Amino acid sequence: MSAAIDPEMHDLRGRPVIVGAGVAGLMTALLAPEPVVLVSRGPLGDFSSSILAQGGLAASLATDDSPELHCADTLAAGGGLCDERAVRRVVEAAPEAIDRLARLGVAFDSATDGSLRLGLEAAHSRRRIVHAAGDATGRELVRALSAAVRATPSITVMEGWDVRRLLVEDGVIAGLLVAGPAGAALLATGRIVLATGGVGGLFPHTTNPLGSFGQGLALAARAGAVIADPEFVQFHPTALASGTGGALPLISEAVRGEGATLVDENGDRFLAGTPGAELAPRDVVARAVWRHRAAGHGTFLDGRHSLGASFERRFPTIDRLCREAGIDPAHQPIPVRPAAHYHMGGIAVDAEGRSTVPGLWACGEVARTGLHGANRLASNSLTEAMVSAGHVAAGIAAAAPREGISPRAAVLPPAPDVSAVRPVVARALGIVRDGETLSHAIAMLTPLATGGGAAADPALVALMMAVAARRREESRGAHFRADFPGQAVQARPSLLTLDQAFSAAADPAIQFPLARSA
């Protein structure tokens, strides 16, 4: 169906539009120095991964810590693909981001002396993780930021609207096509910020909402934006192994930070001989859990000795989730399995969050800033969202609004359906990959991505991931190739456009560029 400009939206013409109401979108809206529109698929925060986040925000706040140490840990985890300038920009601004959130009403956990309580997570050399409500940091952030957004008159909130396409004229953003309770509509604007989250919904087991299939990547790619490092997906090693699939509750890394160990059905601690053991980088732990399960073992997180009766007080959300699954974590090991958790790749952006399409910015998980590299350091993502939101808000304010924008009517694509894509992604883009399976996946995904049906956008995102994964003939960070288990000498990010992905899908000999690492 075609869409016309809704008369009720006419007054919003030309305002910057922020798509997505997780913490990245909420904070960008709050920091914008002019009236903006915030578009959310449902009530603020309800459809975001942010509200599910149990981990906290990493910041060098302790007397034995520093931005230099935080930077070094981030670079070490990133497998050679971090942009050091981006890393320094985030870690140096992290303490102020915590202060800003506290001023906005976020109730962070405190120690007995009144200072912020700092937790330890994998691959961090110091205690620097700030939490709220024990293991419900995301929910507390969304609560406080949503309340602040609703109290800000300059922010127009459109709840219950789904963005289906970005409109581009002469290579420049001209508006967006949305579907909502009253049907389809066009919203004219020359400034759009995508803050739509990750890709976990493409996988049969994920800690993300099932609707997080990479919508922002599909929107940006169809608008002509460059996508960077889409092959890098972080699998969290300890999702609660309940049910047969779908969205799985997360068992936060903070539980391992407090001494819980990974054991099998015999009580054997199968990571004991691994450097870092349970607090090794996430890709190492996730592969170890995957291999142990593949060998026929059960895998469990055992906090009985380290936490015991204090489990409920320290991790109330996880305790409730376990008990709902019939497990008492104070007295029983928790069955766990890896699940798709975080996307290190995303829309290629500069230091101010600008994409390669004029008028389009990205913030949060949907953006590839260079902070995470090949393997995100735990709890850096919420920090990145808070810091990047300030840069993006300043960027859209500095960009002159375009006058007289009148985007042409467009055809409304169908609502996306990921069900045909998940089985392909499960086989080809899991924790361990190989070229033959990736090539088979590309052959299956290409007709779906070009077909224009409900599977088109999810298939397009999965296709770009698979093409980049096949092109990367090495194992680095979260990307592990069974047929190329070694690491290349030089770390080089992958960059590709939609046209390049389709060309490489049709002819594997075509080599899209690998950019030099910054």
TrEMBL record:
* Location within or outside the cell: Cytoplasm
| Domain of life (superkingdom) | Bacteria
GO cellular component annotations of the record: cytoplasm
Reaction catalysis annotation: L-aspartate + O2 = iminosuccinate + H2O2
Known pathway? Cofactor biosynthesis; NAD(+) biosynthesis; iminoaspartate from L-aspartate (oxidase route): step 1/1
Domain Fumarate reductase/succinate dehydrogenase flavoprotein-like C-terminal positions: 461-486
Q: Which UniProt keywords apply?
A: FAD, Flavoprotein, Oxidoreductase, Pyridine nucleotide biosynthesis
InterPro entries per UniProt: FAD-dep_OxRdtase_2_FAD-bd, FAD/NAD-bd_sf, Fum_R/Succ_DH_flav-like_C_sf, Fum_Rdtase/Succ_DH_flav-like_C, NadB, Succ_DH/fumarate_Rdtase_cat_sf
EC number(s) for this protein? 1.4.3.16
Q: Where is the FAD-dependent oxidoreductase 2 FAD-binding domain?
A: 17-382
Task: List the Pfam families hit by this protein, alphabetically.
Answer: FAD_binding_2, Succ_DH_flav_C
- Does Translocase count among this protein's keywords? no
| Gene Ontology biological process | 'de novo' NAD+ biosynthetic process from L-aspartate
Q: Name one GO molecular function term.
A: L-aspartate oxidase activity
UniProt keyword annotation of Lipid metabolism present: no
Name the family the entry cites.
Belongs to the FAD-dependent oxidoreductase 2 family. NadB subfamily.
Please identify the protein, giving its name as recorded: L-aspartate oxidase
